[in-house]
Amino acid sequence: MSNTSPWIDLTGTPGQKHEEGIVVSDSHAAATHPPGLAHHFESYEQQKESSFLGMWLFLVQEVMFFGGLFCCYVIYRSLYGEAFAAASRELNVFIGALNTTVLLFSSFTMVVAVNAAKQGNRKWIVYGLLLTMLFGGIFLGVKYFEYSSKWEHHLVPGPHFEWHGEDVGRPVEIFFCLYFAMTGMHALHMVVGIGIMLWMLRPAWRGKWTPENHNFVEGFGLYWHFVDIVWIFLFPFLYLIGLAT
Amino acid sequence: MSEQHASEHEHGLKFYWLVLFALLVLTWVTYGAALIDFGHPWSDLVALAIAVTKATLVVSFFMHVKGATSMIKMSAVGGFFWLIILFAFVLADVLTRPGMREFF
Amino acid sequence: MSTQDFAFTPYPDLPKSHYLNVAYGLKSWLFTTDHKRIGILYLLSITFFFALGGLYATAIRLELLTPAGDMVQPDTYNRLFTMHGILMIFFFLVPSIPAVLGNFLLPLMIGAKDVAFPRLNLASWYMYIIGATFTLYALFMGGVDTGWTFYTPFSSTYSNSYVAAVAVGIFINGFSSIFTGINFMVTIHRMRAPGLTWFRLPLFVWSHYATSLIMVLGTPVLAITIVLLAMERVFKLGFFDPALGGDPVLFQHLFWFYSHPAVYIMILPSMGVISEIIAAFSRKRIFGYKFVALASMGIAVIGFIVWGHHLFVSSQSLYAGLIFSILTMLVAVPSAVKVFNWTATLYKGSIEYSTPMFYALGFLGLFAIGGLTGVMLATIGIDVHVHDTYFVVAHFHYIMVGGALMGYLGGLHYWWPKITGRMYPGFWSHLSALIIFLGFNLTFFPQFVLGYLGMPRRYHSYPEEFQVLHILSTAGASILAVGYIIPLVYFIWSLKYGEVAGDNPWDAVGLEWQTTSPPSLHNFDEIPVVDFEPYDYVEHEPVDRPYRYSRSEA
How many residue contacts between A and B have a Cβ separation below 8 Å? Predict the structure, then answer.
């Protein structure tokens, strides 16, 4: 019977670990695994399918996350349609439509980047990412000006909120709460996306992503398109209500 | 098998330009449709239908769900399906509270 | 195999190289991506939060010993039960079985080298720790007094406690849960060994698949709800503010859309554990395997459309109440399918009263009581009468402690020799299982009676006629505490002094028992090929092995 405890040896100095032990048990991983294939996968195919499924499940999660906001929207819209229509008139529809256009272009340039990754064209991966960041940046810039004009008109909910339009009751403030929460959460996702793209530039330029293994680019593309889809719904929900009446 | 997959659904940039064009047209169509009064539920339904069409275009072509494995198709639809559950049951409460009779 | 002696050691030594001795030092643990080590990290952290939540429970039970509210102020009492709920639910029960046993066993059970995303797995643990840090900060600053349900507008406007900090903590912890769910689903889909078809999967894996589904679909809704609550509190926005026409009941809808399915996040993995234990110690194939497997999925799906039964008296419309009431009763069907099938598995089995089996049998009885009182509460007429009384408290403790926790402890005892390579002492483990069962019933059964007589929950003083039952309950709680401390001691003891268990001490089937104990870094020397059906136990065949407690200790 062994006297050595299998438990953690917290006294062991890090760095002085049993290097041989790792190498021995890890040998097949190091020896037979091609570059870019993680040790626990058997093939590129398995790795690719896993990462896409994982990304899609993450997007399902995102759908439910935004879904909570949309649920609030649907409920209050069905309760206070009139107030929502009146409040929506304070938003600039033309700018909203323009921003939608910009965002759709950014989705297209993302497709360009992913397509380039599939063909191993690292130059166009970088160009695609740069263009996507440019369009994303324009969108956020426009959003900034929209937000600041709301601030000037005292339409940011909270203690400073003032309503000078037709008298449709307090729920106009709820509309603006939802407007800022939904577009803000969307903008936050875009900021995160642009941050990740900035990080992606260097490995892309260095040719990290090959036609065999570019799961990261394609997975990120899915994320960016999802953010686009959220806006596709936000635009009519927030900007286009009660235009005709 | 994967190569077959890839080649079958590989689209050139030209095709993606077309998708983008369709999306842009639909954006301005939904703007235009909002200026017309279709009556109470219909205006919303038209806007929703156009948004769903646009989202479907993005999901099928930009996100390559057309031609993806059935599991990925399921997860693409699954999230939205689950949202409908959330909406339906919350609405089942809110719209049937006393004082909400005008909805029926 | 000549002797049945307890001290008999079939394997003279632990395997030469296993996941615990490939590397030493704190760094090798904090930066590990090995699912087994991450499971251990979770084990240590949730044990800490279980102890902390237990301390709050102790304080609650001590206060309720006497009718007068003499030990703590009413406001302090509010904080006690709130922190007890938050710690136990978000930081113990939800991660308990999935993050500890699931992490450790899922790849082993499906013959994989690791989960699909090992680094994400480690990130989940860090998110858990960061979320826990925020919660601990709030706790040390004085805690939260809203109840773990955070009902608005009290939580958003009136409460003077650290709601926002806890909200951030739960938000971050939620993503730990979501990422674990994504990881498990992809692992089960894409990492199974050759030949391991869906209907050859152990039921533990099935129940974790169902659990992961709930984690991915439900948790984000709680996350956004908590964000809205925090924004309403910090920036004075008004999503649920009645003054603006907002609807506090909408908050409850969104909250319970996650938090009711969260009950199934807690109980489904436990059911998976019970399936494994009952099959192994009845030496029988599980009765109605496919039904038990699909019942897990059924519970996960139906569990999503029953949340309104928490809102029967919250001005939810009667029409919605009726729908939710009927659907809630429907969820009892797959649960009953499971209980009946476990019972049928026991029938004429060659039952062995090992420690895990004690917990499994305890689970069956306690879960039946918890589940049936759940059906009672689903009936609107009864719920209106006992809503917010100790009847409800007793009901959900029978599910969460009697169900989820018994399953967790049972699973820990069942797989402990696999996790550590060593066996715990038979006598003490049997004794503590009995103590826990008795202590649990003494604590919570009187609460059914109390609630039915009208004792409301969340009150720190009560009329004198309730005192006898409260004393019983407090006495039970102290017995229960003893029952929890004993395993803690002998588990730690066994790490150094326990008998070497061998690869398969229970003579159980399943891929996890085909590798060494403790498993090697990559789990299997060769990826196994599965050509057998699940629970392929040879029926009625008595087995000779060292840890056959029922004989060796007689």
Answer: 128
Question: Could you say which of C13, C113, C178 has the minimum Cβ distance to residue A2?
Answer: C13
Say how many domains are in chain B.
2
pLDDT band at C12 (very low <50, low <70, confident <90, very high): low
Per-residue pLDDT at C10: 52
Q: Please determine, for residue A4, whether its predicted confidence score (pLDDT) is greater than 60.
A: no
| Residue of C215, C480, C508, C212 whose CA lies nearest to C366 | C480
CATH of the domain at C133: 1.20.210.10
Domain assignment of residue C263, yes or no: yes
User: Which positions ≥6 away from C136 have C-beta within 8 Å?
Assistant: none
The Cα C358–Cα C438 span in angstroms is: 12
Testing the interface with C: which of A70, A72, A147, A192 to mutate, by most C Cβ within 10 A? A72
Mean confidence (pLDDT) of chain C:
92
Out of C217, C247, C305, the one facing B89 most closely (by C-beta) is: C305
Residue C266: predicted pLDDT: 96
pLDDT at C11: 53
Q: Please tell me the distance from the alpha carbon of residue A147 to that of residue A141, in angstroms, as a whole number.
A: 10
Question: What's the total number of domains in chain C?
Answer: 1
Domain range enclosing C255:
26-522
**B90: containing domain:** 69-104
CB C181 within 8 A of CB C212: yes
Domains and CATH numbers, chain A: 41-239 (1.20.120.80)
B61 with B73, same domain? no
If asked whether residues B54 and B74 sit together in one domain, one would say no
What is the per-residue pLDDT across C379-393, written as a single tens digit (0 to 9) for each?
A: 999 999 999 999 999
Cβ contact A49:C545 at 8 Å: no
More confident residue, A35 or C207: C207
What distance in Å separates the CA atoms of residue C100 and residue C412, rounded to the nearest whole number?
Answer: 9
Encode C154-211 in three state secondary structure. HHHHHCCCCHHHHHHHHHHHHHHHHHHHHHHHHHHHHCCCCCCCHHHCCHHHHHHHHH
Q: Is the peptide bond before C546 cis (omega within 30 degrees of 0)?
A: no
B13 CB neighbours in chain A (<8 A) are: 112, 115
Q: Of the candidates B24, B62, B78, which has its C-beta nearest A60's C-beta? A: B78
Q: List the structure tokens of C39.
A: 């499971």
Whether B53 and B95 map to the same domain: the answer is no
Over residues A20-67, the pLDDT tens digits come to 333 333 434 445 667 778 888 888 889 999 999 999 999 999 999 999
Do B12 and B57 reside in the same domain of the chain?
yes
**Residues A135, A99: Cα–Cα separation, whole Å:** 9
Mean pLDDT score, C264-287: 95
- To the nearest whole Å, the CA of A207 is away from the closest chain C CA by 23
Say yes or no: B85 and B63 in one domain.
no
C538, C492, C460, C516: which is closest to C283 by C-alpha?
A: C538
The reply to whether C546 falls in a domain is: no
- For residue C553, being part of any structural domain is answered with no
